[in-house]
Sequence to fold (430 residues):
Amino acid sequence: MIDNSFVLRGGIAYSENINGIVTYYRGYLVCVDGICKGAFVNLPDKYKGLKLYDYGERLIIPGMTDLHVHAPQYTFRGIGMDAELLEWLSTYTFPEEAKYSDMDYAIKSYNYFSEDLRRCFTTRAVVFATMHNEATIELMNQLEKTGVITYVGKVNMDRNGGEGLQEASAAESINATKEWLAAIEGKYVNTNPILTPRFIPSCSNELMKGLGQLSKDRGLRIQSHLSENPSEVAWVKELVPESTSYANAYEIFDTMGTIQQPTIMAHCVYSGDEEISILKKHGAYVAHCADSNMNLTSGIAPIRKFLEAGINVGLGTDVAAGSSMNMLKTMFITLQASKMYYRLVDSNVKPLTFEEVFYLATAGGGSYFGKVGSFKDGYDFDAVVIDDSKMHSMRDMSIRERIERMVYNDADAIIKDKFVKGKKVYTRME
Fold:
């Protein structure tokens, strides 16, 4: 039998839908040729010939999707958290990203990022690189080796980047992007390109229009930032005065994507009714980055409103404004932030439930990659096996309670094995 066909046994949990978590105590989880065939109380006869890996009391959950993370910022995470967004970018982020013109620096830094991504709960990720082609290709090379499935973007920015981090013109930025795409064409199995205008303040109108056209011509998706900070929102209105909202500015440049090629917009903290309508119309994904939004004093995104409007939502760590790539921490802060939104912003907007946040971390963000993030029949087999035995308790807990406890006490959750499309990409050495 081929290597990526097998059965796992343990404490299984996955989202049946956004409001319900299915659990099995000592259940069976079947993988055939990298595809999940479902979870079962009793193993069906037709799968009894597959190799069985019995994990005893350990937990087995779907791999998680990080919809928004900045690879070059990883090694300075947790620094400069007293600043707000625009000051933080100019003081810390842009000078750091300028260093990626040095390939020795890029190789070493991206090795830290890629190896730590391989070891964490994330099985899919959408990643910002920098404006540097050679360093972006190095990042893609390293990510390919991890087995984690990713989208990676060479960043575009032809204005307001500061010393060493600004392309000379829109034409130069577009040409560099085309050269990057040509250099990586057909090179990877797990690593995909995504167009990446950093945000409108760093991209001229000409560059934004060029990227919109390139997206159409090549069938490429786009990732960017939207309505993260009040000063940023006001700046965009100055730069694109004909726009009726920040999201409309992206529409003007044909960079909001389509349902078939959805754009990811990170943050959306200050997205009102018009932006919600635009996001819905274009099938865009909101990457909710609660940790980052708290750290940079940006605010609390109205995630409940997005969900009620039928907008696609997933979670992003947004390192380094977010302080960790640990998706459990991201879930934890997402839960806290939604409670504070209810208490401090709008008491008519109920907090997110644990079931909803578990869904956003797995199937919600995973849907950007297709049938990903659940153990339903036909989904890609992405799974993380977790040892929570160090979380001592006098209480007998259900699988669902253990999952919730793990999110709120992530330090004692130890990843034993991690699978992506049925391939083991990480195992913890005892």
